[in-house]
Design goal:
There is one protein chain. This protein has one helix and eleven strands; from the N terminus they run αβββββββββββ. With 140 residues, it is of the alpha+beta class. The strands form three sheets. Strands 2, 3, 6, 10 and 11 form a five-stranded mixed β-sheet that branches. A four-stranded antiparallel β-sheet has the order 5-4-8-9, with no helix packed on it. It has a two-stranded antiparallel ribbon with strand order 1-7. A hairpin with a 5-residue loop joins strand 4 (50-55) and strand 5 (61-64). The longest helix has 22 residues, at 2-23.
């Protein structure tokens, strides 16, 4: 009986350690904060554009605007937001192919000037806590 309790205790400890390891963030995970906002073009919502926040060093975060031009950034599949600090921001409407699961997101040419994507002049700073960062773009 004593051997049975010892084995059961060891099994319980092992399962607890496995669950603890699965629920914690990776040790190399940087500090991130939620980022959302609205993108407009000439005062009108810019739907279905891709937005990327690229830090000086580190992993980029990205998002997609909805029909009203609103976006939320994703750091990775499980984490919303972007790394804290300064970022170059890229916004593009170019899409080579139709999106397989969203009929609203069809292949699209680039509608924005290069200063917003390939030669982006946009920047943003992500700070601890929630960040509401909006962009009012101009077509000319």
């Amino acid at each position: 009986m004593n051997c049975f309790l010892t084995s059961r205790w060891k099994c319980l400890c092992l399962v607890s350690l496995l669950f603890a390891g699965c629920s914690s963030a990776p040790q190399d995970m940087p500090d991130v904060a939620p980022v959302s906002g609205t993108v407009t073009l000439d005062g009108n919502p810019l739907p279905y554009a891709t937005i990327v926040f690229q830090p000086t060093d580190g992993r980029p975060s990205n998002g997609q605007t909805d029909a009203e031009g609103k976006y939320d950034l994703h750091f990775n599949q499980d984490t919303m937001g972007a790394e804290l600090g300064s970022h170059q921001v890229i916004i593009t409407t170019y899409r080579e192919f139709d999106h397989p699961s969203d009929p609203n997101m069809k292949a699209s040419p680039e509608l924005l000037p290069a200063k917003y994507h390939s030669k982006s002049e946009l920047t943003a700073t992500v700070e601890p806590g929630g960040n509401e960062i909006s962009f009012d773009l101009k077509s000319k």
